[in-house]
Amino acid sequence: MSTTKIKAAQLWGKNKDDLKKQLVDLKQELAQLRTQKVAGGANSKLTKIHDLRKSIARVLTVINATQRSQLRLFYKNKKYLPLDLRPKKTRAMRRRLSKHEASIVSDKQKKRQMHFPQRKYAVKVRSVFLLGGSDVGPKTGK
After folding, report:
1. Taking the complete model, does pTM exceed 0.90, yes or no?
2. Are 75 and 82 in contact (CB under 8 A)?
3. Angle formed by the axes of helices 44-74 and 16-38, nearest 10°
C-alpha cells in the first residue's frame, strides 16, 4: 500500500501500461480504505482517502493528456481533426470565413472593379486668414 502522495512529475515518464497498473492499485487501496471507514476506522483514514482520490485524478490526467498528445500527432497532417481536438473559440468565430475564403474575388466582382473602379476625388484646400490686428497668418490657437 502506498500512503504517500503521488507527484505528477513522477508520472510523466511512465508508459501507459505502468500508469494503468498504478491506477488499478490505487483504486483497490481506495476500496479497502472505504470499507475500513465503514467498519469504524480512525479519522486518519479520511485524509488517506482524500490523498488517494487526488492521486487517482493525477494518474487519469496524465493518461488522458498523453493520449490526446498522441492523437494530435496522428491527426497532424490529416484533412480533418476530431471535434474535441479542434480549438474551442466561440461559435461565431468558428463559422467565420477563413482568410483565404474572405480574400477570394468572383469573376463578376473582378469585372465590376475593372469597369467601374473606385473614383478618386481631389479636394482643394483653402487656408483661411483672419483680418485685423497683428494676425497675418492662420490662427495657431495660443
Report:
1. no
2. yes
3. 160
